[in-house]
């Protein structure tokens, strides 16, 4: 029987403990978020919803100690510094990212993902980073790792302590996109016939070989993530990767053909998935096994 | 006795000839048909986002096929089928295509069955 214990959010990662109030507007996503938060409250007594920003590490004391050791001298710091440098380097046309996103770097990450009424689509942070580049005559970055993850990591670091608040407006197309993302999350797929929910809702807290399955609530708060597995395959110890990189990996693991990063399928999934952490604080980037 | 032996021999020969016709090795024509059928099944699965990883995804390395010159090809089922066919090994190719077709059909059934999937909290 796994012992669950109450873990305070690492003080350095938060500005204070808040109670999740997911049902603040009665919107479709906040109702779903509250239902999930209540489900995990029952499943993990003694672990608050706010604790879940640390994922599986909130569920096991020894794992949390290992996580804290990794976060003491974070291996993603150099990459985040490279992202900051890239972000602050002017484009060839003299403009910069601030011309696209504004001067307050702490307010950028919390704006995403969001529904774009004009384009009638879900817009992600990575999508707008590349849009800013291409609109200014620069080459776009790869979606999953490298400089995209470093820039996204820098902006996530700047937004630490800010609250996630994904809004699904009362727009039929936005609600359709949200529901498509929700459907993706709950649909079994691949040769192994598993859904995202199978691991991260119903079996959260159980082990898959040596890995403790993390709950959905709190999943997106720490992205881009520094994954030990990815670092191990890199000769630069570069373990930073975006959310869509992880989506592809998860789909492959259940032997489903993955979708392309930043495809409509994954953007809709992010729209739903991020909503499930509404009310929690950003704490990325962060280490994960 | 001699008549019986001659008759037995005649019957045995007839059976062997019929059997050899029935289990003739597949050739390119059968292979081409099977490729078309596999792709049709996989396209159907793909139309409902139900395609599996190792059926024909270019980055799959799950299925292994050892070529005549000793190389091991790691690919999808369709990729392995193509490699086997290039080797003239249509028998192996047909087996890979059978699996690819099966996966296409199963992927489609799975996706259709999961259309209304939702939370069961």
Q: Sketch the major β-sheet of chain B.
A: 2 strands, antiparallel
Largest beta-sheet characterization of chain A: 3 strands, mixed
> How far is the N terminus from the C terminus of chain B?
79 Å
Q: Would you report the number of β strands of chain A?
A: 7
**First-to-last CA distance of chain A:** 22 Å
Helix content of chain B: 55-70%
Task: Count the beta strands of chain B.
Answer: 2
**Which blocks of ≥5 consecutive residues of chain A have pLDDT under 50?**
1-25
Number of helices of chain B: 5
* Mean pLDDT rating of chain A: 91
| SSE sequence of chain B, one letter per element | HHHEEHH
Give a short overview.
By secondary structure, chain A is mainly alpha-helical. Chain A has one domain: Cytochrome c-like domain (Cytochrome Bc1 Complex, Chain D, domain 2, Orthogonal Bundle), CATH 1.10.760. Chain A has helices spanning 28-43, 61-72, 77-88, 97-101, 125-135, 147-158, 172-186, 196-202, 228-232, 243-253, 264-275; strands at 114-116, 121-123, 207-208, 211-212, 225-227, 240-241, 286-288.
Structure description:
The complex is a heterodimer of chains A (289) and B (121). Chain A has 289 residues and is mainly alpha-helical. Chain A has one domain (1-289): Orthogonal Bundle (Cytochrome Bc1 Complex, Chain D, domain 2). Chain A is built from eleven helices and seven strands. In chain A, the strands form three sheets. Chain A has a three-stranded mixed β-sheet. A two-stranded antiparallel ribbon of chain A has the order 1-2. In chain A, strands 3-4 form a two-stranded antiparallel sheet. In chain A, a hairpin with a 4-residue loop joins strand 1 (114-116) and strand 2 (121-123). Chain A starts with 27 loop residues before the first helix and ends with a strand. By secondary structure, chain B is mainly α. Chain B has one domain. Helices cover 65% and strands 7% of the residues of chain B. Chain B has a two-stranded antiparallel ribbon. In chain B, helix 2 packs parallel to helix 5. The longest helix of chain B has 24 residues, at 90-113. The radius of gyration of chain B is 21 Å and the shape is elongated. Chain A binds chain B through residues 32, 35-36, 39, 182-183, 186-191, 193, 195, 197, 201-202, 251-252, 255-259, 265, and chain B through 46, 49-55, 57, 103, 110-111, 114, 117-121.
